[in-house]
Amino acid sequence: MNSVDVDYDGLIPNNVGLGADVRVKHALEKWHPGYINWWKDMGPEGFQESLVYLRTAVSVDPKGWAKFDYVRMPDYRWGVLLAPPVENRKIAFGSHKGEDAWQDVPGEYRAMLRRLLVIQGDTEPASVEQQRHLGKTAPSLYDLRNLFQVNVEEGRHLWAMVYLLQKYFGTDGREEAEALLQRRSGDPDTPRMLGAFNEKTPDWLSFFMFTFFTDRDGKMQLEALAQSGFDPLSRTCRFMLTEEAHHMFVGETGVTRIIQRTCEAMKAAGISDPNDKQAVRKLGVIDLPTLQKKANLHFSLTLDLFGNEISTNAANAFHAGLKGRFREDRLTDDHRLEHGTYPVLRLVDGRIQNVDTPALSALNMRLRDDYVTDCSVGVGRWNKVIAQNGIAFEIKLPHVAFHRHIGEFAGIHADDKGSLLSDAEWTKKRADFLPSDGDREFIESLMQPQFEKAKFAPWIAPPRVGIDNKPGEFEYVKIA
Ligand SMILES: [Fe+2]
Ligand SMILES: [Fe+2]
Known about the structure:
mainly alpha; two-stranded antiparallel ribbon; 8% strand; binds fe (ii) ion; 480 residues
């Protein structure tokens, strides 16, 4: 067997030679029942017996790694899959630049690496927990299937991190793997580790915004970890990224289809003013200003995931060669960053301004900048759909100082353009920028399930093409 093919013989599909690695195999087999219990308790509610048309990885070859078939979710073959090794791979950045990539954990970086794995690992089950109630209001079988695909793959991402913890971190790795099954999104006593993963995902618009904005943070973190000098982590993240692309596809096309449907309904009713919320809502579709508010919310919550703009943790992880920059391998500086500077947006004397900061300390800021660029490409595609429909409205990313809880701007209020607001002004204007109770109630009123083949809830357009090129009437989920 080569490292592209996946061994499906045992309990845990893998391409890491688990059959010959008795200690780790046993550790994972011991962890497995707890995982299945977690999935049954916290995974998609009400659909565990349904047959879902899912893709499963049968290879890690970039061209063609997936096989589609009906499967009951608890029977999904969650496995441990690493991208093929790069021969002779060298550490590409930091103080060990140019040395051979590590196949084992370097002792001096053990604690730092474990923390990186646990933080990444914690986000994976968290999003499954956040999304567990969505099935019962799915706008179509197509969307229901996509939700479940995202959920099982987040489950697999948890497996990916747990494998690294079990294989390379002995007893403390086992304890961390256990703790990953114990924390719960939104639980007041044992919450998930990061803020955005303790928020609710109450409706399908939130789900699409979450997969667009927050799974994209996932992509950025995985891209940075894929550069790691710790080779098993790099290979793990490289394969996770191929799955992550689908999650962002679900988010981007989900919002696109909502926009499409709204624009069509407005045109049919002869409504040209996108801000005439009441008239648009009467058509049973989501008005564009409400989409803007939801984007504001999810964008700002996700920016908090990048942590403090200036961070010694990020500097240390880079210096150690554990976590690189976005597409480190395509950058053309010295990859050590012991000298240069990077402009960081800071609050100085009550004004938001760029301050040149030692580049090594500014890595969170830099990754966040790359993230914002990546987001704006997707938002541009949404706006193209609005423009093609002849409606004068543009969705904009709010200023990075808007609605923040972590970093430079946590202590202030700013509007969507980055102008500072007093507490009183913020309280007065908040509902202009963020969804109000009324907005939430309206969206909730639309969330009626549509489980008939080939049909879609009236607030969202059908997709252009089916999953796995299936025709429109395909039964993506056989509900049991
Ligand atoms: Fe993930
Ligand atoms: Fe994801």
